[in-house]
Design a protein that fits this description.
Largest sheet: 7 strands, mixed
Helix content: 25-40%
Radius of gyration: 28 Å
CATH class of the largest domain: Alpha Beta
Structural class: alpha/beta
Number of domains: 3
Bound molecules: adenosine-5'-triphosphate, magnesium ion, zinc ion
CATH topology of the largest domain: Rossmann fold
Number of strands: 18
CATH architecture of the largest domain: 3-Layer(aba) Sandwich
């Protein structure tokens, strides 16, 4: 009868149980691994054979069949090595009367040729799954212990070598100390604070509104005016993450970065991919269908600096994930779905030289228009707020009271978010003002006569485009929420009408 041992894999950012069945048959000796494994799994044969022999066991001289079930799920990576090697010892009677119950025990780990157990990616979602499925314990590489222990209620056993692992299964207590390893660019606890920013009160107010209402924002300004500095501080005013959100982010970093520091990631991510980034790097892909920047920014901020420099194709690829809040990444015969809910913050110079509006700018209207039109289209359609950033006067003394702490801004954001949650409690999938469409806009963005007239005048004066109309309404709604107004007041609309600086200029440039 085939021996069964359990291991795990990751699909998207969720764990799945994999049953490893090992069968020894008479025939020409050799190993075949079946069950939709990738190249890394095919290469497991050599690793397992060397590890078994170098740990002082015999490699069975049979026709060995290892089946990874379920057979209709693609599997990748090297984390099945340990389970497969244990299965082989069981099948060849080298591990009889195991003292531990193998039906409630899972194995995760790659084997090195000399029999050491190496860490794996995606341990967190695997352990979550193990617990859900009723497993009592999981054996894995000691480097993975801290991460795995984030999940309570399941025993985590860290092992350094295959030999020790077998001894443990036979009943010997082998205590192995966990290892602290470095994580890969996971968000850290201390975030930069808006208190560092001098002046820029108006801009910060619009940023706060953007965050509160879920509006994406574009900052336009000359080099050095503080766009990057400000963008980096946006995560600090997003609402605190719930435990579920934090766990979700930690799972993503577990899948992509190998091991985290053994801490739940509490601060929202801030990702700033370079404009040379490939479409795969942005949305996910490659041979292993790994998550991209938009998933690494999940629950946080994706900052696209110098957005006109991004490839048009890459920007267009962002559109669907932004609409869906998730992204489907496809590789041969399999699609991984990753979450991708993020706030988009973009920045650009106002013209090719960067100094539009100043004497030193020699760009022609045509050049400026061409530069700006690079970002028109699908992405611009999803950006509600566009604000100019004017450089501050560095010679001026900025008083402390002119500065705002992120915490103060964030508290107001939480308050405005709560108003929206309440408003949209009956609307499936809608949580903030930015997500409103047609009928909801009509329902919640009612203008009084005075405001209607103002809107009309503004559209005539500035030739706003029709598709911007609803953007102004939604932003006005967020300003109204900020001030606790039940209905949009004229003062809210006035603020909203100054939230799209580029649009106002377009008419002049087109002349
Ligand atoms: N409002 C401000 N308060 C304090 N420091 C500022 C402010 N604005 C700019 N700075 C300083 O100027 C530096 C340059 O700002 P930053 O890199 O954010 O500019 P930028 O707009 O992103 O420029 P670029 O277009 O070149 O990317 C910052 O590191 C910061 O030290
Ligand atoms: Mg910058
Ligand atoms: Zn210029």
């Amino acid at each position: 009868m085939a021996q069964s041992v359990y291991s795990f894999t990751v699909v998207g950012i969720d764990g799945r149980v994999v049953r490893i069945e090992t069968e020894l048959l008479h025939g020409i000796s050799g190993v075949s691994i079946i069950g939709l494994g990738d190249q890394a799994i095919k290469e497991a044969k050599e690793r397992i054979e060397a590890a078994i022999i170098n740990s002082g066991f015999d490699f069975p001289q049979y026709k060995v069949i290892i089946n990874l079930a379920p057979g209709d799920m693609k599997k990748s990576g090297s984390s099945f090595d340990l389970g497969m090697a244990i299965g082989l010892l069981l099948a060849s009677n080298q591990l009889v009367n195991a003292a531990r119950d193998l039906t409630t025990l899972g194995f995760i780990g790659e084997l090195s040729l000399d029999g050491r157990i190496r860490p794996s990616r995606g341990v967190l979602p695997m352990v979550i799954k193990a617990k859900e499925e009723g497993f009592k314990s999981v054996i894995l590489a000691r480097e993975n212990v801290l991460e795995a222990r984030l999940i309570e209620g399941i025993e985590i056993v860290g092992m350094d070598t295959f030999k020790n692992c077998v001894a443990y299964l036979k009943g010997k207590e082998t205590v192995v100390q966990p290892v602290v390893t470095k994580s890969r660019e996971a968000p850290t606890r201390s975030q930069p604070d808006f208190h560092d920013v001098k002046g820029q009160k108006e801009l910060i107010q619009y940023i706060q509104i953007a965050v509160a209402g879920g509006h994406n924002i574009l900052m336009v300004g000359s080099p050095g005016c503080g766009k990057s500095m400000i963008a980096k501080r946006i995560p600090s005013i997003l609402p605190k993450m719930s435990r579920d959100e934090a766990l979700e982010v930690t799972k993503i970093y577990s899948v992509t970065g190998g091991v985290t520091k053994g801490q739940i990631i509490e601060s929202r991510p801030f990702r700033a991919p370079h404009h040379n980034a490939s479409t795969n790097a942005l949305v996910g892909g490659g041979r292993l269908a790994m998550p991209g920047e938009i998933t690494l920014a999940h629950n946080g901020v994706l900052f696209l600096d110098e957005i006109p420099q991004f490839e048009k194709r890459a920007l267009e690829a962002l559109r669907q994930p932004m609409e869906d809040g998730q992204v489907a990444v496809t590789r041969v015969e399999q699609t991984n779905t990753y979450p991708s809910k993020f706030m988009l913050v973009a920045a650009m110079n106002p013209c090719p030289c960067g100094y539009y509006g100043q004497d030193r700018c020699q760009c022609t209207d045509k050049e400026i228009l061409k530069y700006r039109q690079k970002v028109s289209g699908p992405i611009m359609d999803r950006i509600d707020i566009q604000k100019y950033v004017t450089p501050i006067d560095f010679l001026k003394e900025y008083e402390d009271e002119d500065r705002i702490e992120s915490e103060t801004l964030r508290e107001a954001v939480e308050r405005i978010r709560a108003i929206q949650e309440n408003r949209f409690s009956g609307e499936e999938g809608i949580h903030n003002n930015a997500q409103m469409e047609g009928p909801l806009i009509e329902k919640y963005c009612v203008l009084d006569e005075e405001s209607k007239l103002l809107m009309k005048q503004a559209f005539q004066a500035f030739h706003f485009s029709a598709r911007s109309y609803s953007k102004y309404l939604k932003i006005a709604r967020t300003f109204a929420d900020y001030h606790g107004h039940e209905n949009i007041l004229k003062s809210d609309l006035i603020m909203a009408l100054s939230s799209r600086d580029l649009e106002k200029e377009e008419r002049d440039l087109l002349k």
